[in-house]
Amino acid sequence: MSLTADKLTNDERFSGDNVLQFLLYLPIGLVLMAFRIVLALILWIAAIILPNKSAVRQLLSTLACWTFGVYVKVKGNKDPCCSVLVANYVSCLDSLAAAHTLGTISLRKWKVPPFFASTLGIKNAAQFVRKQHFTESPSKPVLLQPEGGPTNGKGLLKFTDWSFPIGNKVQPIAITVERPFTNVTVHCPNDKIDVFPWWDALWFLWTPCTVYTLMALPAIERKDENDQEFVEKIRKAIADYLQVEATAWSWSEMSRGRPRAARLPRGAAPAAPPAAPRPAPPAARRVQEVLPRVPLADIIRDLERTRSVDVTITNFLEGITPYIPIPEPTSEPQPSTSQAPPKYISPTPTGTFPKTAKERQMSFQERKNQMIAEARQRYIEKHGLNVALNC
């Protein structure tokens, strides 16, 4: 039987069965939280003062593990030839556990202070649109968690959140977390993918210890598979080790509204929910304001993959993501004493990426100039201005 979306998330913080033990530990947890807050202040000052060197980063990573009570166990062997590691998504501190033990960089879209991101081993995903950006840290492998959001570990979501095209050799990492009393992640209706879950991180300070187990599975090489088949092969390897179901849910489908199981009378069958049109997300509307001729379905599809408005706009402008442009609306010609201004039409992306930097710059500049002229023309027509275009 397939899992439903409400079975993959935690909606309550308390996870134990013995409430008395939780209450007895409560004052001890508060004292431990106060001590760890002092450690957090030391970590903040050290991250600002100390130079950005490998030994210093390792020291700060160790101090961060002490601060959040994180203990990491690594099983299996990391493949030194793999620059990309793919793991399941369990908590907001997965990146800290992997950076501390495997020396990885995790791609995130969170808006966090620079010192905090550096300590947790986080890099902004928008900086890694293409693989050549890895040259700034060639010795550090990159940890990807393409589920897009955390689950409670009972199932594995579809892998849809890829920041760049994957290579031909990837090593899967299976992450499990154990912690007394409380769940490591609690989902709220207003969860946002680009906001760090500070409330979940605060509970790490209160909990006595959070044990991460990172299992490095054998590296997987692409044979004759396409991208979708190769991604599914990686997902199946992680799901088989964790002994969980590889579900048909994606994080975007869950984040639109996590349905809760309603209590029904005994013997009654659940009614099918009525189909309703889904409104366009705000990010898709922002992209369509800049690129009005790109179909909304193509925008949403690319946003589910990139999770970034800027990266999606760049993909359409540079022809990385092909699309069929929406035809311009036709209107009856209106008499005018001045010469009719010319219409500007954005070229359809060819789907090919220019080879040289000069060609890419010229291609981007041409599209930019045409977009500006097109927007200016729409403004003149909307307000009925009698202005001659000066190109």
From TrEMBL:
GO cellular component terms listed in the entry, alphabetical order: endoplasmic reticulum membrane; lipid droplet
Record field: compositional bias (Pro residues): 271-282
Keyword flag Membrane: yes
Transmembrane segments: 22-50
Gene Ontology molecular function terms on file: ubiquitin binding
Region (Disordered) location: 260-287, 324-354
Main location: endoplasmic reticulum
Pfam families in UniProt: CUE (PF02845)
Compositionally biased tracts (Low complexity): 333-342
Protein's GO biological process: ERAD pathway
Keywords (A to Z) from UniProt: Endoplasmic reticulum, Lipid droplet, Membrane, Transmembrane, Transmembrane helix
InterPro entries in UniProt: AUP1_CUE, CUE
Annotated localization: Endoplasmic reticulum membrane; Lipid droplet
CDD domains: CUE_AUP1
Its membrane topology: Peripheral membrane protein
UniProt domain CUE: residue ranges: 283-319
Protein family: Belongs to the AUP1 family.
Name of the protein in its database record: Lipid droplet-regulating VLDL assembly factor AUP1
UniProt source species: Euphydryas editha
Record lineage: Eukaryota, Metazoa, Ecdysozoa, Arthropoda, Hexapoda
